Predict the 3D structure of the following.
Amino acid sequence: MAKKTKKKNVTKKAKKNSKHDTQAISTNLIIQKKRDGGSLTTEEVKWFIDGYTAGTIPDYQMSALLMAIFIRGFNTTETAALTDSMLYSGDVLDFKDITVIDKHSTGGIGDKTSFILAPIAAACGVKVPMIAGRGLGHTGGTVDKVESIKGFNTSLTMKQFSEQLKKKGQVMIGQTKEIAPADKKIYGLRDVTGTVESIPLITASIMSKKLAEGASGIVMDVKTGSGAFMQTLPDAKALAKSIRETALRFNKNIITMITNMDEPLGHYIGNSLEMIESIETLRGKGPKDLTDLSVELAGAMIYLAKKAPTLKAGVKMAQEALDSGVALDKFRELIALQGGDASYVDDYSKFPMAEYATDIIAPKNGYVKSIDGKALGLYVVDLGGGRKASADKIDFGVGFVTFKKVGDKVKKGEKIVTVYHHKHQAPIIKRIEKEMFERVFEIAAKPGKKIPLIIETTTSWSK
Ligand code: URA
């Protein structure tokens, strides 16, 4: 089992703080300080996070601070303090003897690369420890998606997690109460308080989990565009830089890739649908953008693990693992290892699917100028495929299949989208049909500008 360290007993400390009769005032003063544009000290940040994790600071005060951070921002020292406090809110694994490489995405629409790159990288000898998220805002979550496979257990104990990683080279779980519990609580709160799209909050959220799971290297897919949290390239670059700086501060090797999320990745959006498209991609029959990005990210993991001498050589190894079918076998193995029904891989009818499929038809000839991925993601949430409140149950069977990409030619009467939904959702479907060509697909006389899939790759070695 990996060595676990816990820098301090957060719970005890926060409980002690709670007895302090000035707590309400102090909490309020910290919120006011940030609201008015002040910089918080490391002690203030730590005190607040410890108190929230221990339950002595309530959701409403944490929400207020999150909104103040969202609006006023955090400087580098405050972001570092936040990352530290969240990281050491739980156990920190340390796989001293093995090189463990993870990948994380800042979140997008149709982003399902984890299911493809994890088995590819594992097939190439990389140890892949995935502690993945649930849906956040308009973006879907890896854990919600993989749970559409019956029996797949995303709640392993830390002992099971470490053992499976060491013996089998790949593991995929959701956030546990041991790993960065502060993030688990704060993530759920941000999802329902409009405080997701913030560089310091995203940096601390991602890095606290990645650092705690014991990865020695991290590949970070920073999404930019209409379906991403960072909609502009300068914001995506700033987030990538913030994440790199944090990784280096903790002596971790990191590759950041800024990638295009101006249109959904692949064609399928929704939990079961995305699993089906991932498996098709592992069969070598996936869409080009999804295949290319998964192979590039897996190649970067192979390179960071020093299983390949260059990034290019890593990508070549990744492509070979995909083409030979070894990666698909590895994915079957992953499902079985975690108690899932691996026969889903060969029989897609087993995935939960909504009983209705409504086609949406192009109203005119032209070219696709743009696709608003965020709007599609929000429709999936409206249909029940994501959460509006933390306790909402996910509907695996709803979602979209899109048939066009930016730049494609469109003929009047041609099918552009199929929506999978339930009978009682007819009013939502009516609205989606009405809005599809007002808000989501812009059809124009000329094709839209195609943005490269991978915009910028930066490799930083810690030593
Ligand atoms: N992914 C995370 O884990 N956290 C965020 O805040 C955004 C994306």
